[in-house]
Amino acid sequence: MRQMPSSRRRIAATFGLAVAFCWPLTAATVSKLNDDVLAPLRGPVTAKQIRINNIPLYAHGTANIELEEFQVWAPGGKVIVSDGKSVQYLDPPPMRFFRGQVNGDAESFAYFSVDGRTGGIFGLVATRDGKFSVNAAQRHGVSRDRNGNDFDYFLTASDESDEMPMTGKSFECGVERLPALPQVNKRNLTELDAGGHPIMGQGITGTQSFAMTVEVETDDELFAAAGNSVGNVTTLVTNLTGAVSTIYNRDLHTNVVQQNVHVYSNGPGTDPWTASDIFNGLAELGNNYHTNHLTLKRSAVIMLSGKNTLSGVAWEGTIGGGDFASSINSVSTFGGAYAWCGSIGDLQGAFTTTVPDPDATTNGTQFGMPTGGNNYWPLEEYAHELGHNLAGHHTHCVAITQGEANGTNHPTQLFIDPCHTGEIDNDFNGHMSACATGPDFGSGAVAPTEKGTIMSYCHNVFSGQVPQSRFTMGQASEVSHHELDDYMLRAAGPLAPFGGNFNIVTAVGSFTMSTITASSSVVANSTGNTASVTTTNGGTPTFAWTITGGTITSAANTASITYTAGASGNVVLRATAFKNGTNGSGFANGGVGITDTKTVSIITCVAPAIATQPQSVAVPTGTGVTLSVGATGTPLNFQWFIGTSGVTTTPIGGATAASVDVAPSSTTTYWVRVSNSCGTVDSASATVTVVPIAAADFFLLLPCRVLDTRGGPPVPANGVMNLVVTGKCGVAAGATAAAVNVTVVSPAVNGLVTLYPGPVNTVKPVVSTINYTAGRTLANNARITVGVDGSINIFNAAGTPLDFLIDVAGYFK
Amino acid sequence: MNMRTASKLVLFTLASLLSAVSASAQSGPFQFFAVPPCRVVDTRNPNSTNGGPIFNVGTQRNFAIRGNCAVPTTAKAVSLNVTITGATTASFLTLWPSGGARPVVSTINFTQNDPALANGAIVGLSTAAQDLSVFNSDGNVHVILDVTGYFQ
C-alpha cells in the first residue's frame, strides 16, 4: 500500500462513440425454453438461493445453473417521479437480481433479473464454451397474467464473430486542460480515526467489504428514450446499478446500492436540468444537490442522461470528502461526489433495459467489453464515472512499473492502455509526465502488456487498435488495481460530509458464515431435526435455506431451521447468508451471499438394546472414574442419571454420550437411558463406592520385580496398561500403596509415565511418575497408590510403546 | 542397566527430614495415607502460591502442601514426585520443611539437556501455612510436585 498522493481535484471524462456504426448482437443459435425451465426464478421471494435446470446450453445436453440473489436497492430507496407539478414517491420496482454459476463449469457466470411486475426474465450466461442470453418475447393475443406466462423465452447463443467491430470519431481533450482545482479535504495515511488510531489502508485483495449508496438522477431525454415509461427508466437504471455492483463487488469488495432514482415524467421541461453539455451538466448537478439535498446521505450522485453527449464527466477522488466550492468553465458550482453520464438510453439504437454481463468472457478476454451492441456503453460509462468519484483516474498513463513509465527498463515507455498522450500532468506519482512523451496507441504504438480497464480513457474509440477493454477495475496484480487502493484509504476516515456525522463509504468488516451445524444423520421421516449457521459482521443478516430429501418445517429465512427428513437417501441442506439491513452509519450493505452445503444421511431407525451394562466400581476418595454402556441400535441417544435405574429426577448435564466421567465425593449410584425415535431402554444401576483414605503401616519386602514388559507386550503408545499388584511379590490384598522403583528401558522417544490407581476405567490424573529421554534407561523411586481392586494403571504419554519395569520394595496397608 | 542414584537421593531426603523436624535424628513413628495422585505445585502455571514464577538462580520458594490434594493439616511428611523441566543450566533442587535452615542435601540433580526429569522423595512438612521449602541452585527451572501420599 503506497502513501496516498497529494491530489488535486480535477475533472476526468470518458468520451463515447458514434451511434451509427453500432449494431445489435446477431443471433447465431436460438432455442425456445420450456415454460417450466425458468419457473424457479419466479419462486417465493424468500428463496434467495435457487437453481434452474435443463438450460440447453450444449448440443449434447442441458446444464443446471445455481443462483443466489443480490441486492441493488438500498432499504428506504424510492423511485421519485416528478411531473413538474408534484412529486410521487414510489417503491422500487420488485426487481430481483441473481448471480451464479453453471454447475460443473468453474469459469462460468450467470446473471438473471426478474421483473416482479410482469414476471419478465432477462438472463445472461457465460460458459467456457460460449455466451448466451435469455430474452422474452411477448405472446400475441395473450393478456398479461403478471406471472410471466404470457412470454415465450428464448436462449440465444452469441457467436462473437457476429459482433460488429466498433469504429467512431475521435475524442476531445479539452477536459484535461481545465484549470487546476483547489485542494480540499486532503487526507493521507497519517490521518487518525475517531478513536485516535492511524487509519490503515484496507487492501483490495483482502476480505474487507465496503458498501456505498448512490442517488441516481435521470432527465427528460432518458424518459423520452424509454418510451415515456417510468418503469422502463427504473428498470434500466436498476439493471445498470446491479451490473456496476457486480463489477465493484468483484474487484473492490464494494457493493453499490441505489437509494433513490429520480424520474421526470411529464415530457420536455419537466426536469430541472437545462444544461446541454457535460460540463455545465455536472455544474448544474452539483449546485442542485448542494442547494437542495445537502443533508441527504449518499456516497455519490450519478446522472444518467439521455442527452446525446457521447461522453461523461465526474469529479475525481471525492467520495467521502463532502462538497467544495469550485467552478467549471467559469461557472460557479459545488464539486463533490457527482458524476454525469451522457448518451444513456438509445445510444445504440432502440431503447433496451438490458445490460451486458460484466463477468462474461468476451472476445477471448475475461470480463471483456463487447466491441459493439449489447448496450455496453451505459454500463461502461456508469462504472467509469463512479470510479472517478472513488479516486480511480484514467489508466492509460499508468505503467506496470515506474521503470516502464520512464522507459528505463523497457525499450519504450509502456502503459496499461496508452491510447492517448494528450492527457498530461495533473496526475500522481509522475506517471503522467512520463506518459506525456509516450507513444499514442491511436497512432499505432505497440500493444500494451496489460489489458484495458473500466478506467481506460478511450478503449472503444479506435477499433482494432486498442486491446480488448474490460468490465473490470483491474485485477490484483495490476497497477490499475493498486491505484484504486487510494479509494479504500479514503473509505475509513472520520468524515463529515453533507452535513452529517457519518462515513460516506462504510467498511463493513469481513462478512463470514459458519459451516452448517446439524447431525450427520437423521432417522427416516423424523421430524424436528435442526440445522443452523452463525455469521459475523453481517449487521442484521438475512438467511435463505433450501433442502432436498426433506422438508423445512420452520421459517427458511432465519439462522436456524427445523426440518423433516425424507424416507431414504440423503438430506442436502443448503444455507446462504446475506448481509443486509443498515449499519451504524445508516447505509445499506449490499447483498453478498455466503453459502454452505451439508449432506445428512437418512438412516433407518433400529430400537436400542443394551449389550454391556455399566459396572459398579470402588475407588479411593477423590478419584474419578469413567462409566460406560455398550448399546446397539440406530441412532443412539444417551442420557446419564444419578440414582437407581428408572429414576429420572437427577439427570447429569451434558452426559449424553455412551460414557461419562464421574468423581463422587461419596458413594453414588448411576444409570443411563438409551433411546431413539423407535425405542427406549434403561441400563442397570452401577454404584461408585468411595473408599476413604485410611491409615496404613509400612511392610518391608525383599526387592522383587512385579512387572517387566520386555517379556511381553510393552506399555502401549499413548495408552494404559492395567496391572494387578496385590498377591504378587508379597504385596498383601488390601494394600493402599506400594513403595517401588520404576524403570524405563531404552525409550525410543521422550515421554513420561503416569502411575495411578486402578481399575482401568479410573480417570487419569494430570501427574507424572517418571519423565524420560530418548535412548536413556532411567529409574525413579516412588510410592504409588494402589486401587481398591488391587491394581494400578500405567499410562505412557508418548507416541511409541515403552518397555517398563516396576520393582517393589514394600507396601502400605 | 543404569539404576543411577535415585535410591541414594531418597536416603538424603530422609536424612534431611529427620534433621529438620527435630534436633534429634528421628521423629515418629508415622503412618502412611495413600491419596489419589495429585499435582500440588506447578510453576508453569500463572503466578500464585503453588504456581509461577519460574525458579531463578539461588531462589528459595515456600509452597503450601497441607490443605491441598487431600493432604490434611495434620500431615507430618509427604510422599512426592519432584519433576523439573525447562532447565537452563545444570543445577539441583533441595526440598525441606520450611522454617529451618536449608540442609546440605540434594533432592534432584539435573542438566539443561534433560527435557524433563523426575525423582521420588519423602519430605517433612513444617506447621507454617507454606510448609515446604524448595531451593534451586543455578539457572532457571520449572518445578512440578505431584503428591501420592502423606505420613502422620
Apparent shape of chain B? globular
Indicate the percent of residues in helices of chain B. 10-25%
Strand content of chain A: 35-45%
* Helix and strand element order of chain B: HEEEEEEEE
The largest sheet of chain A is: 9 strands, mixed
| Total strand segments of chain A | 48
Q: What can you tell me about this protein's structure?
A:
The complex is a heterodimer of chains A (813) and B (152). Chain A contains 8 helices and 48 strands. With 813 residues, chain A is mainly β. The longest helix of chain A has 23 residues. Chain B has 152 residues and is mostly beta strands. Chain B is built from 1 helix and 8 strands, in the order αββββββββ. The longest helix of chain B is centred in the N-terminal third of the chain and has 16 residues. At the A-B interface, β43, β44 and β46 of A face α1, β1, β3, β6 and β8 of B.
Layout of helices and strands, plus pairs?
The complex is a heterodimer of chains A (813) and B (152).
Chain A: E1 11-15, E2 27-33, E3 49-58, E4 61-70, E5 73-82, E6 87-90, E7 95-102, E8 109-115, E9 121-126, E10 131-138, E11 151-158, E12 209-217, H1 220-225, H2 230-252, E13 254-264, H3 278-292, E14 300-304, E15 311-315, E16 324-328, E17 331-335, E18 338-341, E19 361-362, E20 365-366, H4 376-390, H5 402-406, H6 431-435, H7 479-483, H8 485-490, E21 506-509, E22 512-513, E23 517-518, E24 521-523, E25 529-532, E26 535-536, E27 542-548, E28 550-552, E29 560-565, E30 570-578, E31 593-603, E32 606-612, E33 617-620, E34 625-628, E35 630-634, E36 637-642, E37 659-662, E38 668-676, E39 679-682, E40 686-691, E41 698-708, E42 719-724, E43 737-745, E44 751-757, E45 770-772, E46 778-785, E47 791-797, E48 803-812
Parallel strand pairs in A: 5-13, 12-13, 12-14, 14-18, 24-31, 33-40
Antiparallel strand pairs in A: 1-15, 2-11, 3-4, 4-7, 5-6, 7-8, 8-9, 9-10, 10-11, 12-21, 15-18, 16-17, 19-20, 22-26, 23-25, 25-29, 27-30, 28-29, 30-31, 32-35, 34-37, 36-38, 38-39, 38-40, 41-48, 42-47, 43-46, 43-48, 44-45, 44-47
Chain B: H1 6-21, E1 32-42, E2 60-63, E3 77-85, E4 91-97, E5 108-110, E6 116-124, E7 132-136, E8 142-151
Antiparallel strand pairs in B: 1-8, 2-7, 3-6, 3-8, 4-5, 4-7
